[in-house]
Each structure stands twice: as structure tokens, then as C-alpha cells.
Amino acid sequence: MNDQPAEEKSWWQRLSGGLKRTSASIGGAVADLVVKRNDEIEDVLIRADLGVDSAARIAAAVGEGRYDKSITADEVKAVVAAEVEKVLAPVAKPLAMAEARPFVVLVVGVNGSGKTTTIGKLAAKFRAEGRSVMLAAGDTFRAAAIDQLKIWGRRSGASVIARSSGADAAGVAFDALTEARGEEIDVLLVDTAGRLQNKAVLMEELQKIVRVMKKIEPRAPHAVLLVLDATVGQNALSQVEVFRDIAGVSGLAMTKLDGTARGGILVAIAAKFGLPVHFIGVGEGIDDLAPFSAKDFAQAIAGIE
């Protein structure tokens, strides 16, 4: 990776550093495999939340004719990385920006997943690309979410449409899309509540937001981005299922990969759902969200330097 430009290399360093807890757990199994010549790697891959099927396939690939004294830890890591990349490559897709102006992204996810922070980071990314951005504070249930979005708006140079806590979320979305169209904004990012305790209420609210936006722009939203917290492990699988069913998720962003030894959950999600993965985050910084690369992620999770 030494031939990468400085900016890309710094992201690689953040990615591999962020996934250290995951790669260290897998690396320990690799060392055991090399020294003891056993098949414990499958159990460790499952504990790293790669999923039973993926873990079995990777362990089998490692085992194919490779249980000999000449095998090295680096060779095993290379096999792990190659197998992980096979699963992830089909879902590693950038967020395709339609010609529509504004391009409307409905951002969904449970409270605490990093949803509002991800919106702020995306706003900064789009602003850096020279696009005009508007944020809609549609999580009206939490005053903190509204305040947080306003802060991110100031940091990124994006305009923010917000109402008082408890306001109608669909009304906020309607006003934001109306203003965004009038001002010819390039990208409109709409925050939403993430209360899974009552799925029926959440579904009704999200459907209402979509319904009122379609009155202005029949194709809106152009993308529905689900933000997932990697630290919740297996719970992320059920979150994908719920939001896919109630919100028509079109792509994923995974946050907090630096805070868990279970970064492999992204592999399990890719294998089970096949939804595009657009972005991953490995920290709190404004630059710690980047487009998803299957190869980089696979090498980082396998502990390849």
C-alpha cells in the first residue's frame, strides 16, 4: 500500500487502525492455526461476527491443501482477505447521484447508530466536492438530534431546516424539499427518528415523510441510506431486515468500526442481504467516513499491513 497517494494512505492507516480490534482477534487464530495446525479459525471468525456460512467457507479455503509445515501466517491472512473480498466485492458500490436537483437522501437507522453524525460527515464530503447541501432535521423526537444537526450544518457549510422538538417530521421534510427546490440545492439529506420500540409508529412516520415529499418530487427520495453501528454485532442483521422492510433501504453506511472486535458483521450482512455498502466510518472526525472499498476492508480485517 506504500504507493498510494498521501490522502489515500492516511485513510488506509485510519481504516487498518480502526479495525485493529477485529484483525487482532482473527490474527490470534491465524497464529494458532500456523503453530498448532488446528481449525480454530472458523470459531474465531464466527466470534468476529462474519457469520456461520462465511466463516465455514473461509476456514475451508484456508484448509484446502494448506495444512503443511511450510504454511505461514501471512499466507493464511492472504487467503482470509481474498475470501472476504469475494463476499464484499459485489456490494461495494458508490452512492450513485441521480441528475435530480435536489438529490434527496432519506437517512434511517436506530437512535445511537451514528445517523446524525454520518449526515454531517456526508454534508462535509458533498460540500468538499463543490455541491450545495441542505439538511432536514426530521428526527423531531429528540431535541439533541436537532441541535446536533445544526452544529454539523455550521461545520460543513450546509443550510439546515429545523423546527422545534415535537414538530411533525413530515412537515419538516416537506418544507425542506420545497426550499431546496427553490434554491436549486444539489443534495438534501433528511434525518429521521429511529425508535424501534414501536415499529408500527416508526413505519407510519417514515411512510408519511415519503408520501409528502412525493407530492413535490414524485421520485423522492432518490436513495434511502441505512446507518448501522458495527458495535452492536448480530443486532445489525435484524436492523437491516426491519428497515429494509419498512423503509425500502437502498444502501448502507456502517459506523464505529474502530470500536469493536466484531467488524466482520459487515461480511455477514453482505452475504445475507446483498445490499450496496456505500460508506464506512472508523472514527469521530469529519474525514473518518469514506466510500467503501472491498479490497481495503478485506485486507484490514485480515490484518495485512
Fold topology:
Blueprint: H1 6-18, H2 20-36, H3 41-47, H4 52-63, H5 73-88, E1 103-108, H6 115-128, E2 133-136, H7 143-156, E3 159-161, H8 169-182, E4 187-190, H9 199-216, E5 223-229, H10 235-247, E6 251-255, H11 265-273, E7 277-281, E8 289-291, H12 294-301
Parallel strand pairs: 1-4, 1-5, 2-3, 2-4, 5-6, 6-7
Antiparallel strand pairs: 7-8
Globular, elongated, flat, extended or rod-shaped: what is the shape? elongated
Order of helices and strands: HHHHHEHEHEHEHEHEHEEH
Instruction: Please report which band the strand proportion falls in: under 5%, 5-15%, 15-25%, 25-35%, 35-45% or over 45%.
Output: 5-15%
Biggest sheet strand line-up: 3-2-4-1-5-6-7-8
Largest sheet, in brief, is: 8 strands, mixed
Structural class: alpha/beta
Please bin the fraction of helical residues: 40-55%
Tally of DSSP β-strands = 8
What's the pLDDT, averaged over the residues? 89
Distance between the termini: 8 Å
CA radius of gyration is 21 Å
How many H/I helices? Answer: 12
Low-pLDDT ranges: none
